Automatic annotation (TrEMBL):
Gene3D superfamilies: CoaB-like, Flavin prenyltransferase-like. It comes from Corynebacterium frankenforstense DSM 45800. HAMAP family: CoaBC (MF_02225). InterPro entries: CoaB-like_sf, CoaBC, DNA/pantothenate-metab_flavo_C, Flavin_trans-like, Flavoprotein. Its cofactor is FMN; Mg(2+). This is Coenzyme A biosynthesis bifunctional protein CoaBC. Binds 1 FMN per subunit.
């Protein structure tokens, strides 16, 4: 069931119907009467293939307000206005949408959209807290351009983000906020090493896994610092500040500067291990001396940023309980398989968690989903055979992100309970 409240962002609900239908869902749209002032019932009926009603007096013989709510596997409300959130918090049932939510026993996901002042108003804060306490997933809105000239938190998340977060929430029975009050530093995308002012050496990373991590971490309550190299065009996640970098040197500087303030550091960027030893100041012309030299390109080794962060924690430059996560994108070869390389990498890098996945042949890079193994090392492990392996089933990059962050939360709680002991 897709609930739509009366806000200017109601038109985005049309895209959301598509997002869910294309994933095989049978969508019933339940707008408030005011939502129909923005988008006509005919549009929702045509897109969903199901009839649309707003009040409990339509189809009384079918007891509609009970049926739609009871039969749904997932209720998503987007956009949710301040007024709708207030009515939900009060337990009202004065239209078909609020009545349906009251009878729904499935996960309910609310995507708010309103002016910043309304979102930050203590009345709305209290209502949101009430809904969250009751187990409803209220997503934090994006920050950005609102209806008027104003800008700030309150913008409806993009339909693809809402659909993905709703699926992730549904699969986990809702999203709580265990990272409230923490800062999570995430690197994403590929680095580019300049050859001259117009050319670079890069890689195929899309940045989607790093952005998905930021999306989920932001919704788990964290303040996210996202340092991004080259990526696909991706919307900024909620509660996230994005810093753009190009080269490994810029990435290292950005990560090293932010890591001491972070509670969690996740290196999802695809970092170039080497860079051209020298960068031409002007474009290398065909047949020029500089280009002739390209037959054998001299490379210099880049620093390992992840190992640097681990070393900083060991030296006391970071908080001792900073949780550090890395990735291992492996193909495997005649020497060892991908998982074995992942185990070795966890011990070599010294981080707390590694998400190891097999790449190549269209896997992982640029694809919407992923699969792999979550690797953790028991205290003092030196043998790859001692590494703990948990299989992460194929899922969207957000679902993988949710698995990784659940592990981070487990580690943080284990640390805290050790302190309490
Ligand atoms: N990484 C890093 N700095 C580098 C290279 C990699 O911080 N110079 C990080 C990546 O962001 C990732 C992890 O280290 O989290 C593993 O990256 P990967 O390229 O798989 O590992 P390498 O150390 O390059 O090992 P190898 O090339 O031998 O597989």
């Amino acid at each position: 069931m897709l609930g739509v409240a009366g806000g200017i962002a109601a038109y985005k609900a049309c895209h959301l119907v598509r997002e869910f239908s294309e994933h095989g869902a049978d969508v019933t749209v339940v707008p408030t009467p005011n939502a129909l002032k923005f988008v006509g019932a005919a549009t929702f009926e045509a897109l969903s293939g199901n009839p649309v009603a707003t009040d409990v007096f339509t189809g009384v013989d079918e007891v509609r307000h009970v049926r739609v709510g009871q039969e749904s596997d997932l209720v998503v409300i987007a956009p949710a206005t301040a007024d709708l959130i207030a009515r939900l918090a009060a337990g009202r049932a004065d239209d078909l949408l609020t009545a349906s939510v009251l009878v729904a026993t499935c996960p309910v996901v609310v995507a708010p959209a309103m002016h910043t002042e309304m979102w930050l108003n203590p009345a709305t804060r209290d209502n949101v807290a009430t809904l969250r306490r009751r187990g409803i997933t209220v997503l934090d809105p994006a920050s950005g351009r609102l209806t008027g000239p104003d800008s700030g938190p309150g913008r409806l998340l993009e339909p693809a983000q809402i659909a993905e977060l709703a699926r992730t929430a549904a699969a986990r029975g809702g999203l709580s906020r265990p990272l409230e009050g923490t800062t999570v530093l995430i690197s994403a995308g590929g680095t580019r090493e300049g050859l001259d002012p117009v050319r670079y050496l890069g890689n195929r990373s899309s940045g989607r896994q790093g952005f998905a991590l930021a999306e989920v971490a932001g919704q788990l309550g964290a303040r996210v610092e996202l340092v991004a190299g080259a990526t696909d065009a991706l919307p900024t996640p909620a509660n996230t500040t994005v810093t753009r970098i190009e080269s490994t040197a810029e990435l290292k500087a950005a990560v090293d500067e932010r890591a001491p303030r972070a509670d969690v550091v996740i290196m999802a960027a695809a970092v170039s291990d080497f860079r051209p030893a020298s960068v031409a100041g002007a474009k290398m012309k065909k047949g020029s001396e500089a280009e002739a030299g390209l037959e054998t390109l001299q490379m210099a080794e880049n620093p390992d940023i992840l190992r640097g962060v681990v070393a900083a924690r060991e030296s006391g430059a970071l908080g001792g309980d900073t949780v550090i996560v890395g990735f291992a994108a492996e193909t495997g070869d005649e020497d060892a398989d991908a998982l074995e390389y992942g185990r070795r990498k966890l011990l070599k890098k010294g981080c707390d968690v590694i998400l190891c996945n097999e790449v190549g042949q269209g896997r992982a890079f640029g694809t919407p989903d992923n699969a792999g193994w979550l690797l953790t090392a028991p205290e003092g492990a030196t043998d790859p055979a001692d590494v703990t392996v948990r299989e992460v089933p194929r899922g969207s990059k957000q679902e993988i992100a949710a698995e990784i962050l659940a592990e981070v939360v487990r580690i943080r709680h284990a640390d805290n309970s050790a302190l309490q002991d």
